[in-house]
Structure formats: structure tokens, C-alpha cells
Amino acid sequence: MTHDATPRSARHGSAAANILLITADDMHGTTPGCFGGPAEATPRLDRLASQGTIFRRAHVPVAVCQPSRSALLTGRWPHRNGAEGFQPIADGVPLLTDVLRKAGYLAGILGKVEHLQPTERFGWDLRLGMRELGMGRGPAAYGRAAAEYFDRASRSGQPWFLMANAHDPHRPFHGSALEQERFSGAERAAIPAPSKVFAPGEEPVPGFLPDIEGVRTEYAEYLSSSRRCDDVAGAVLDALDATGHADDTVVVFLSDNGMAFPFAKANCYLQSTLTPLIIRWPGVTRPRTAHDTGFVSTLDLFPTFCAAAGAVLPDGLDGRSLLPLLGGEQQQDRDAVFTVFHETAAKNRFEMRCVQTAEFGYIRNYWSDGETEYRAENMTGLSWNAMRADPALAARVDFYLHRVPEELYDLHTDPSCLANLAGNPGHAEILARMRKLLAEWMTTTADPLGRHGPSVRVQRPTPE
């Protein structure tokens, strides 16, 4: 059975809202200044936040690019849409573009085109890859492409959806040795410098990383790339403003996962899945508002976009519309968030499941057997090498490589998830409660690992 996703209070005549979705690639959930990050990291995103609502407890369902984006565009968990890793979405799973097209929308995508598969199934009316957009890092190129798309939509008289995907701050970071290695001279020439370049030590590193030289250098490179992501977002927003239709457009910003550093991307920690979600919906959101308590998931955006479009919801969605929250109402059952991890870009399986509440985070590492070593893209670059070279960090490095079957963190006292409490007798009752929450969720969503958490045979890692 299907139903109209749009509450009566959100319908404004017969006109459907345009939808602009801007995404960052690998931006930490607290990097934007409006989320407590460096003041000069994201001035344009901070301005957007001042015009709408931010969600301080928003999470992606899985902390790696393609499955995160596939979950967003299907509104389903990875194990229910077929894209647990870098695979195509399963046949028969409805896509957001399918639903919007039926509602009369044009649909365009800028950047990260290949990270939504199969590409042809999305039926994009416009699609431009990274080489046409300054290797996905060119603000002016994004601005021009967005302006041309908006003009095309205006001439057609159709509402539109545009997914503008910055490739920053994904590796290689601005000014890094890897940037020199990975991009040719011509490619580097097409990539402008960020409008602000950070120096090592200018900003303190996040608490889940050690404050050592290699990390400080790489974190500065990451912040510079984050500023260029902000430049891209600003160029697209400027193009929207120039149309005179900003008041008819829902604007959403988020990151697909956490930063590509150890203990972040491609894991289930708080810093892995927390995303800086900003929504500006004229006539619905109020300026300078924030949701600080209830948890939301980017799975909730599919039905939210359907509400903006007055579109019909398909069956089988795992998210709920955020429209009531945006209008100042409360929603039940937002006291916990669940996240998963399946496999890396190199297709190595490291099955993890997580539940987080306001107080605690619980992770079940199905792959951890004392011998298998974790390996992912977040371990390339300066930070991991600096950590491995520091004798004082030997225990932390070994833990990252091997983990333990269960992890439990007090998120009030230890938001960086440094002290595992799973073996602490004083937390046995809490551990049991979190196990139960996770098991119930796995049963409800038909997670293939099953209610009792059977062991999983893990493919041995290959070099990334």
C-alpha cells in the first residue's frame, strides 16, 4: 500500500518545493563551525545553518561512501537495499529519483556519479563527473553547472532535485604528498586552492586522535580541504540565490561519513557516523534552531524529500519524515540510533553493528577473532604511519588492528571512545541492556547476522 507523504500543513498550493542536496565526502560531524568546529572551517555552511535547523544527533547508517549514499537514495538499510559495500542497488528497490520523477521532477547530480549504482537506473537528467568539476573540487565549476541546471529547470517549468556532491574533504588532502602522487599536473591545475589554508597546529586535533606531529599536519590538510568543500557549497548556494527561487527550495547539507582517519570512517564509532545535518526549508524551519536531543538518520531524508515534493511514498522505507521535528513537534522512539558496517572499498568484510543512546555507545565486532587485522583506506597517509611509529601508542594501534568482540563507551565522559567499558563489571547491566537493544533491532530489520550474533567468516584483508 502507498500513501501521500505530505502532511496537510506542508502543502503550499499546488507548487512542489525544489530540493537541493549538498553533500561532503568524509567530513567529520563536528568540523563545521556551527557544530563546534573551527571558526574559519566552513563560513558558508555556518551561514546556511543560521537560516535553518541543525541536527546535533544525526547519523549516517553506514560510514563509507557508496553504501551510505545508496541508503540515502533508497531510504533502506544496506542489507535491505543490496548495496552493503560497493555494489549496485538491488533490482526492484525503489529509488528517490523514481519517486520524484513520478511527481514531475527533473533530477540532476554533480560529482560522485559512480557512487550510486547502477548509474543508468537513476535516470539523471543531468550528470557531471569529477573531471568536469575540477576533479570534484572546483567551486566555480560547480557554480556554473548548478546555474545551467537551474536555468534548464526554469525553462521546463518543472520542479527539480539536484544532488551536488563535493569530493572534498576526501583524500588526497590539499597540499599533501598523496595529492602530488595521485593527480597529474593537468588535474592539479584544474583544482583551485581553498579560500583558507590551515597550518599544522593551528587547530587542535579531535580527541579520538593523538596529538602528534604527523596527525597535526594531516589534520591541517584535512581542514583546508574542508574549507574548499565549503567553497563548493557556497558556489552552488550562490547559483540558487541568483535564480530568485531560494524561498521555493529545500536545502539540505550533510556528509556521507566521518573523516578518513583511524577510528573514524569505515567503523561504527560516534565519530564514524555522526553527520553535520543542516536543513533550510522556507516556511517550515525557523532560523538558528537546533535539535540537540533526539537521534535522526539520513534514512529519514527519503520520506522527508517526498513530503517536500508531495510525492507518494513507496513501501518498505526504513526512515521517517523529519517534517514534524522541523515544524517544532516531537517524535517518539528517537532515543537511540543504529549503525552498521559491512565492507571496505577493497571489499574486505569487517562486519560491525552499533547502537548509540545519549549515554552509551555499544559496538559488536563480528570480525574480531584475535588474529584478523583490520585494514581500510583511513589507514593511508600521515596519521596512521605516525601512530605506528610512536611506541607510546602501541596499545592503541594494536587495538585498532584487532579490536575485541564487544565495545562499550560512556559518551558523556568519553565522547572520543577511548576507554572500552565492555569488560568492566560495574557496567554489566548497561552492557546487557545495549546487547538487547541491538539484538531486537537486528531481528526487526531481518539483519542477516541474526538475533544471536553468530560468528562470521571474515575475508582476509588485501592491500588498499
Structural write-up:
- The longest helix is centred in the middle third of the chain and has 31 residues, at 213-243.
- It is globular and about 65 Å long.
- Strand 13 and strand 14 (349-357) form a beta hairpin.
- The chain has helices at residues 43-50, 65-74, 78-81, 96-102, 139-156, 177-182, 185-189, 213-243, 270-273, 301-309, 323-326, 382-389, 394-402, 428-444; strands at 3-4, 18-24, 53-55, 58-59, 106-110, 126-128, 160-165, 249-255, 277-280, 289-291, 296-297, 312-313, 336-343, 349-357, 360-365, 406-410.
- The protein has two domains: 16-326, Alkaline Phosphatase, subunit A; 337-444, Arylsulfatase, C-terminal domain.
- Mean pLDDT is 94; it is low at 1-14 and 452-460.
- An eight-stranded mixed beta sheet has the order 6-5-7-2-8-9-3-10, sandwiched between helices. A four-stranded antiparallel beta sheet has the order 13-14-15-16, covered by helices on one side.
- With 464 residues, it is an alpha/beta fold.
- Helix 5 packs parallel to helix 8 and helix 8 (213-243) packs antiparallel against helix 12 (382-389).
- The protein has 14 helices and 16 strands.
